[in-house]
Amino acid sequence: MLLVVHNVTAATRLRDVLPLFHDDLRVQLLATCPGSSAFGAGVAELLADTGVPVVPWEQAVRTPVPLALSSSFGGQLRSVQGKLTVLSHGVGYTKGSLQNDLLVARWRSM
Length: 110
Fold this sequence. Notes:
The chain is α/β, with parallel strands linked by helices. Helix content is 30%, strand content 13%. It contains 4 helices and 4 strands, in the order E-H-E-H-H-E-E-H. A 4-stranded parallel sheet has the order 2-1-3-4. Helix 1 (8-17) packs parallel to helix 2. The longest helix is centred in the last third of the chain and has 11 residues, at 98-108.
């Protein structure tokens, strides 16, 4: 499973779900950062603390994965080779807007 981490806020949300996979030996976790957020400071340190292997974005998009988890719609998520699940990372994140509705509709049609 590939964790797509855009910034520290998004990483914190993804870190919340890591215990769900901790004891499942069928799941190999990898993490990557697409570098698309202006708020990327601290992501490398946070990922290092998790112990999850980190792969460069360029390698991550060339590596097929059964599932990718992100907590942001940012960056080139369409480049990921595998099923994608986007988790909410805050109260206002999933607030309805035309732009969010169009993004969700586009992802559902994939």
